[in-house]
Amino acid sequence: MSEAAIAPSATLGSARTGASPSRAAIGDSEFDRDTALTRREPGVYDIELSAGWTIISAVNGGYLLAVLGRALADALPHPDPFTISAHYLTASQPGPAVVRTETVRTGRTLSTGQASLFQLDEQGNEVERIRVLASYGDLGALPDDVRTAARPPQMPPPEQCFGPQDAPSPVPGSSAITDRLFLKLDPSTLGWALGKPSGKGEMRAWFGLADGRDADPLSLLLAVDALPPTAFEIGLSGWVPTVELTVHVRCRPAPGPLRVAITTRNLAGGFLEEDAEVWDSADRLVAQSRQLARVRLG
Amino acid sequence: MSEAAIAPSATLGSARTGASPSRAAIGDSEFDRDTALTRREPGVYDIELSAGWTIISAVNGGYLLAVLGRALADALPHPDPFTISAHYLTASQPGPAVVRTETVRTGRTLSTGQASLFQLDEQGNEVERIRVLASYGDLGALPDDVRTAARPPQMPPPEQCFGPQDAPSPVPGSSAITDRLFLKLDPSTLGWALGKPSGKGEMRAWFGLADGRDADPLSLLLAVDALPPTAFEIGLSGWVPTVELTVHVRCRPAPGPLRVAITTRNLAGGFLEEDAEVWDSADRLVAQSRQLARVRLG
Prior knowledge:
The structure is a homodimer.
Chain A: E1 4-6, H1 10-17, H2 30-34, E2 37-41, E3 44-49, E4 54-55, E5 58-59, H3 61-75, E6 80-88, E7 95-106, E8 111-120, E9 126-137, H4 176-180, E10 181-185, E11 202-209, H5 217-223, H6 230-234, E12 242-249, E13 258-263, E14 271-279, E15 285-294
Antiparallel strand pairs in A: 1-2, 2-3, 3-7, 4-5, 6-9, 6-12, 7-8, 8-9, 10-11, 11-13, 12-15, 13-14, 14-15
Helix pairs in contact in A: 3-5
Pfam family, one (chains A, B): 4HBT_3
Domain Acyl-CoA thioesterase-like N-terminal HotDog (chains A, B): 50-136
Domain Acyl-CoA thioesterase-like C-terminal (chains A, B): 170-295
């Protein structure tokens, strides 16, 4: 089978939305280019992991999940991740990577697949970076019945929130991802940036992509892991590496900015959980996630 | 390699706790016997799935997760599930099953593994029932630093709560699991049993094992999926099959009954999430889980 590029075609994406040249379209944007894979053969995909989605020199876990999510969307007969779990094994680096997928089961409304991302070590051996198990469906085929009891987070409007560009001092280390995102944090979760963490494990922000691309189910996988760690507001510093991340994608997001609200309620034993909710401009709870992460105490 | 039975030995379990003959010990209980596997060779385990853990004729998903969890505890160098995700593919039946495990990565403090449960169909082909991805560690090695902000659920004491045995009418279909459990539901989440569901997606109960065995990390995998569906309190009836279930086990539970509190906040599009918290007698938040389940609307 000839190689196939796996990303919505640029032309198709632009034509569909009629986006102005200054605003990227789904299918023709930084996010799409940097998550695009080439199918080498069924179940095997090549990609160059971008250096543009790093935070403090680590490749962002949500970006990596979106890469794996795109591979599975190609491999499985259903287009959208409904529930996807990733275990992060070793640290990914910008550069060449291979994604290998396996179809576990295909059904009428749901299919399940598995995917792993590998990179070569200095001896040329494949080292597994991340393994994912996911069930996919068609979000467009779901009935309209919506009885969500949860309510969107209360947040000031974006113009009263603050992004990395507003920060008094730059984020240490590489902050390339902040150039890719439209991120405006709720000032009530920004005490840490001013040396006065609130002590409450919360982080809230308006979220979008810097080039204006609207959200879609795959970019939601990025959105749930793209805010500063709640640990910062608890008063902990340093890296908070993700051990495992599970995302439920419940709805195709409407165009426009998202609101992401993250909560930590169980910091204990050197680990914490981060629960993220993603709300779209139509006040739909489009994604929910939980990750288990390690913290450095003291 | 000779066959090996995988369950804590009966003698060791009883001796360690000094349990009275009328109260089962960890290692010598219904739960241990019904989740015991025989290792046929490295990575391959046989088990007879018990009919004793069914609810309305379906083998309980938490019991199945505990079976897979026990296999991985044997296969991996670390004893306790820290984070475990299961995708339920096809319905399991009581009877023979095979669990196949794979070690994905072993580290100093965490190891990751994968496990699948298979049963034979009528033609004698292996059909995959469940696939699991999990990271294991040693809960006993975690530091004592506990800053849990969450608080235990407010519930009446067990003697003011109600179990299946108190129900005015029996649960339809096979309810074998209710004979295995000590389950006392919070009356404020029991409106459904009296024809008056509250409309709120909540379910709370005191939980234990009927034979008195204390909880351990593996039985927590059962506890998070052993209550009636929150859908009942929302006013929906019928089966609410689990698509995916992720459990974080954060602490070895203290002896004594557990409190399980489950919440649903996003019933939409024919799916809902159930978030479970499990609290032990020392007021520790010992496990958190989220499952994605399908509902029948209307």
